[in-house]
Amino acid sequence: MVEPRRWRKAPASMTSRLLAAAVLLAAAFMAWLAVTIPMAARTLQVTVGASVVYVGYLAWRGWAVMRREMALGRSGAGASTGVAVGAPWISVLVPARNEAAVIAASVGDLLAQRYADASGPHFDLLVVDDGSSDGTGELARQAIEGSSVSARVIRREPGSGPLTKAAVLAFAQPFFRGEVVGVIDADTRIGPDFLERVARAWGRDPTAAAVQVQRRVAAGQPGWLPAAQDAEQLMDMASQCGRRATDGTAELRGNGMFVRVAALAGVGGWNARALTEDLDLSTRLAAAGEHVALAPDAELREEAVVTLGDLWRQRLRWAEGGLRRILEIGPGLLRSPDLALTRKLDFLAFAGEYLIPPLFVAALVASIITIPVPGPADWTVPLSLFVAYGGGSLMLALAGLSAHGVRGRALLWGSLRGALFLSHWLLVVTTALIRIALGRGAEQFVQTPRRGAPSQV
Fold first, then answer.
1. Model pLDDT for residues 134-146, shown as the tens digit of each residue
2. Per the structure, how many domains does the chain have?
3. Which residues have CB under 8 Å from 145's CB, separation 6+?
4. Which of 333, 237, 240, 232 is nearest to 280 (CA)?
5. Model confidence over 281-324: pLDDT tens digits?
6. Cys-Cys link to 104, which of 143, 190, 234, 363 (CB 3.0-4.6 A)?
7. What is the span of the domain harbouring residue 180?
8. DSSP letters spanning 337-368
9. CATH number at residue 308
């Protein structure tokens, strides 16, 4: 087990800057060679092609896991009973900053959970009012009033620490009661058997340190962008299930993550300065020899981002957080004696995906630069990188959507839409790398505007 204080060191910002710059320079060098030297182009294309085959294998394994888990959840053996005898006590934590539009509905769904033993509800609820100025805390108290569930609202005053979700979770850590803590975003809607499904997933993988549920976009949000984000969530679950099925390092995804308190304490708790607390914790758990289980049949609904500006800010923060944890925690993970070789290789393969975006951008720029010089550039290089990225995304989309019963034209169109949508990561990841290399301040959390409580699952 990793010593807790090991992870409380300040981030090695200069190291991260140098590593990010090295990645960008390496991508530029490789791209220039590929567009000007045929042998280099073919070598790169064969390598990228092999990675697509690997992604296809993960998609297939993930599809099989998702179908099996969801079929079990619909069968008599997986039917909801509401009985939590022998199941862990769960402390549900809801971080909330200016969530007046959605907090009452989310709290109501949590209080309605059928998860109890002979003595009553087998969970408690903690809402953290993170310095709200719109009455979020009072609305949460009103929603809790009269409930038989042990529930309370605490307030974190403005200026109490970093403006990150991780800092809110760290603030709430002393108030946990259960042996498991679950993190639910304030815009989440769930069915009454949600916690029971989480516990059943843990029962199928009892050695897991954490469980991640299936995130979906709220029903009733029309338009191309919400539908694409919904497909993206299914694609991600297919990828995660595939990684877990091959003994890889499956990861948490922020909303709907459940962690054993002992495992959390064993890796030093929440890193208050992490931009992406889920990825940061996932990597530290993996380095300690722990693993994350998946619960594709435990589904939650959350609001989608509906404007391109909000989407860009959200994805840039995600990409920067993901890159920073690879640069700062990744080396320790790869050196960890507690981590199996298969999981180290899986982590390296996943980290390698971050190289394709800067390679694509660099190859595109290099091809344009060489237009006026003798000997035209090999335009198949940026094209093959784009097609490979899209091909891998398409296979994951087919896996995730078909596992949920989508068929025919709806499956084809939904998969194409999901694959096309994921191409935005080519620009987002490259931008995040440039920001880190230039030493720009970390992208801060900016709340996505809420448009009202989405419908329940």
1. 999 999 999 999 8
2. 1
3. none
4. 333
5. 999 999 999 999 999 999 999 999 999 999 999 999 999 989 98
6. 143
7. 1-457
8. TTS-HHHHHHHHHHHHGGGHHHHHHHHHHHHH
9. 3.90.550.10
